[in-house]
Amino acid sequence: MLSTSCKYALRAVVFLMSKAAGQQRYGIKEIAKAIEANEHTTAKILQLLAREGIIYSAKGPTGGFYLLPDAAPIYLIQIIRLIDGDHFFFDCILGLKECSDKKPCPFHQYYKEARAGLFQQFSSVTVQQLSRDIALGNTYLKR
Predict the structure, then answer these.
(1) Which domain holds residue 117?
(2) FRET pair for 51, CA 20 to 30 Å: which of 9, 27, 109, 125?
(3) Does 89 map to a domain?
(4) 3 state SS for 93-124
(5) CA 65 from chain center: how many Å?
(6) Are 124 and 80 in contact (CB under 8 A)?
(7) How confident is the model at residue 120 (pLDDT cuts 50, 70, 90)?
(8) Which residues make Cβ contacts (< 8 Å) with residue 19, sequence separation at least 6?
(9) pTM reported for the whole predicted model
(10) Count of the separate structural domains present in the chain
């Protein structure tokens, strides 16, 4: 469903938000280790997230990537769109070009409801919510 890069991006942003209260900056190595991802991929993802204004970065000896505790809500769909696009929520699951309510593929009716539900969830859940669940010990970021 989501690419590995997208999963890493989601993990990285949730990790940074879960650490935002301390106003600490984290390097690529630290983030890669925390989200169980390789450093090269993590670096590319973090640079893209920073370039698009989802996270912040600072250069220099005290630099790194970070989020502010009072950051505007970051919806999961923002990260998904940036990394993977939103075609998953709108394209035919079988890859047909002309799949629609009027000309459905064999799986259209089943997939339509599931994909709408996922789109709604990703559009309403924020990184802040997920990081609060981590802080409360209700969820975990590492396997």
Answers:
(1) 4-135
(2) 125
(3) yes
(4) CCCCCCCCCCCCCCCHHHHHHHHHHHHHHHHH
(5) 15
(6) no
(7) very high
(8) 26, 66, 67
(9) 0.90
(10) 1
Encoded tokens for 100: 């629609």
Run of H or E residues at 56: strand 56-58
Is 103 a member of any domain? yes
Kindly report the length of the chain: 143
The CATH number assigned to the domain holding 69 equals 1.10.10.10
Domain membership flag for residue 21: yes
Residue 58: strand pairing partners: 64
Q: Is residue 142 part of a domain?
A: no
Which residues lie below 8 Å from residue 69, measured CB to CB, with a gap of 6+? 20, 21, 23
Tokens of 63: 């630099």
Torsional sign, CA 122, 25, 53, 50: negative
Q: Which stretch of 7-11, 46-50, 65-69, 107-111 has the lowest confidence by average pLDDT?
A: 107-111
